[in-house]
Amino acid sequence: MSLIEMLFGRPRPPAAHSQPHSHLGSAHSHLSKNPTVSTRREMLRVVLRDTMTRHGIPASWINAEMLVATTRGREPGLHWRLVVKHWDPRLMTHGVAFQNHLIKRVMTFDPMAAEWLMGISWQFALDDESACPPMPQPGSWTAEPHRAIETRAAVAPVGGSGDVIAGPVLIANTAPAPAGENDTSAAREDLERLFAVRDADMQKHASPQFDKTQPMFAPTEPAKL
Question: What's the pTM?
Fold first, then answer.
């Protein structure tokens, strides 16, 4: 059983007979001035502020309104309205967990909160709605979630037509570098491997009508003195 069911799980009359009132009559105004009601309102404010601080949520993102609510067959109580003032998708993702933490905190302060806390609701009252995403396509609500596809970098085979190096060449160096080798030596080895791949590919694509060039002059040897 969830915390919300533990708190509001008792049988109740139809919802039409239970609603918070923002415009109260003289009787409700008198009730709102009751010291017990004022204490409970202050407790709800403290619980909200303390829970937001514990979880790192900025204090200006959510405000609270405590409204006097009545229902048939019960004494008037309070309805806790959480007013979201700042848009952040994480509030929607973790809203249920955040609400459960609020309820648990209230029950810690007052184990009899189920007798006077009539309900919890959320309201969006954003100053700027430009960052809020629009409604998605209708079919997206029931579509299966996309599976993450792992993409691996493929090494193109050497020897394609048209280019010296056809496709990306991946040079893997899986052997651990020896102790004491600096970054300059490692970079030099990588360049030597790259040049070796390039030279091998150039030789493979060399035109057959040209023979391997020979040096113009014979190698000389130093004369004996």
Answer: 0.54
